[in-house]
Amino acid sequence: MNAINGENNRIGKRCESSRPYGGRGNVASCRASIIAKMVRGLTQWTKTLSFPARVSPQRPSKEAKVFQVSPSSSPTSPPSPIGDNIDKPAVINEESFHDLEAEKAIMGSIVYCIHHKDGCKWSDELRKLKAHLNTCKHDAVPCSNKCGAMIPRVLMEDHLKYTCAQRRARCDFCAKEFTGHTLEKHSGTCGYEPLYCENKCGMKVQRRHLSQHKLGECAKRLVACRYCNKEFVFDTLGAHHAKCGRFPVACPHRCETAVLPREDLEVHLKDHCTTHLLSCTFKDAGCRFKGNRFSLDKHLEESAKMHLSLMCSVVTKQQHQITSLKSAIGKLSLNYTGTLIWKISDYTAKMSEAKVKEGMELVSPPFYTSQYGYKLQASIFLNGNGTGEGSHISIYIKILPGEYDALLRWPFSHSVSFTMFDQTVVAEKACNIVESFIPDPTWKNFQRPSREPDSLGFGFPRFVSHEMVKKRHFVKDDTMFIRVKVDPSKIVAV
Question: What is the model's pTM?
Answer without folding.
Answer: 0.42
